[in-house]
Amino acid sequence: MALDNPQSETLCASERRAVISATHWTLPLTATVALHALMGLLLWLGWQPQPPAAVAQARTITTQLVVLPATEPEVVVPPVETAALPPAPPPEPVRTPEPQVVPQRPPQPEPALLARKEAEQREEQERVQKQQVEREREEHARQQREAREQGERLAAEQYAAEQRRAEQAAARAAAAEQAQISAYAPLNKSAPDYPRRALSQSLEGDCTVEYTVQTNGRVSNAEVVPGACDERIFVRLSLVAAKEFVYRPRVVNGQAVAVPGVRNTFRYRIEQ
User: Fold this and answer.
1) 180 CB contacts (<8 Å, ≥6 apart)?
2) Which pLDDT value is given to residue 70?
3) HSE (side-chain half, CA atoms, 13 Å) at 109
4) Is 210 in a helix, a strand, or coil?
5) Which burial class, exposed, middle or buried, applies to 29 when counting CB atoms under 10 A from its CB (0-12, 13-18, 19+)?
6) Share of the chain above pLDDT 70, in %
7) CA nearest 186: which of 267, 257, 242?
8) C-alpha closest to that of 249 among 216, 227, 271, 202
9) Closest CA to 265 of 211, 181, 185, 209
10) Phi then psi for 222, rounded to 5 degrees?
11) Residue 213 near residue 259, CB atoms below 8 Å
12) Which phi and psi angles does 228 have, rounded to 5°?
């Protein structure tokens, strides 16, 4: 026996509507998922549908199944306490670099001009070297000339000194001889004859003879002073002439005395 329950009928009607509504939405969703799965499988296998040949212009609709990643829970990072940083130092002043001066290369001379300049430089160097050599040669010649002149001057001075000494010695000898003569006077002093051979050979010279004046005024021990006779040819005649001299004897305290070391120089000259 059926009982009329309005509340139950209302519930059944609501359930039927819910079932119908779920069925209405479930079928299309299932068909869509199946279609997408089939197309994904075909794409994975590399299958491409061939358009029909009869259709000239066909539109291709490409679908792609996108799987969204699962949403990860947001990680909350606790704040980290940081120490207070010191104030930043002031920025250094920007130094503007000085402009660099790029040296300009001088223009390169032409090869012909460069070769001419090099030739002129070589000629100038050769000229300077020649002048240097010439100056050195002149300096060497000047030094040699000065050395020669100095040697000649020294020789002349030495010869003049020797001449002065000889003249002084002769003057002293003459003074001594004069002093002796003043003490005793020659009475006869004849000049010797000129040797013929010396005359024929045009020989001239001096010869000094030393002797002793005896108490009677005669000459003894006559001999030629060594090195005081210019030619040997004058020796013999000078000794002969000296032995012929006669003096007034020297008197000391009223008594005649001998005088040794008396010298006489015979001069042989050819008269023109």
Assistant:
1) 259, 262
2) 57
3) 8
4) strand
5) exposed
6) 65
7) 242
8) 216
9) 209
10) -75, 135
11) yes
12) -105, 15
pLDDT at 249 over 60: yes
Indicate whether 235 pLDDT > 80: yes
Biggest CA–CA distance in the chain, Å, is 237
Domain ranges, ordered by start, for the chain: 110-183, 184-268
What are the start-end ranges of the E strands in the chain? 186-188, 205-213, 219-229, 246-247, 250-252, 255-257, 259-268
One-letter amino acid for residue 87 of the chain: P
> Which residue, chain included where needed, has tokens 């013929």?
196
Q: Choose among 229, 255, 254, 227: nearest CA to 242.
A: 229
Phi, psi of 138 (to 5 degrees): -65, -40
- Measuring CA to CA, how many Å separate 68 from each of 31, 71, 245? 21, 9, 175
For domain 184-268, the question of CATH label 3.30.420.10 is answered with: no
Please, what is the average pLDDT of the chain?
77
Tell me if residue 48 falls in helix, strand or coil.
coil
Residue 23's pLDDT band (boundaries 50, 70, 90)? Answer: low
**What is the amino acid identity at position 128?**
V
Q: What is the pLDDT of residues 125-142, one digit of tens each?
A: 998 999 999 999 999 999
Mean pLDDT across the stretch 172-176? 77
Residue scoring higher pLDDT (56 or 267): 267
**Predicted local confidence at residue 193, as pLDDT:** 87
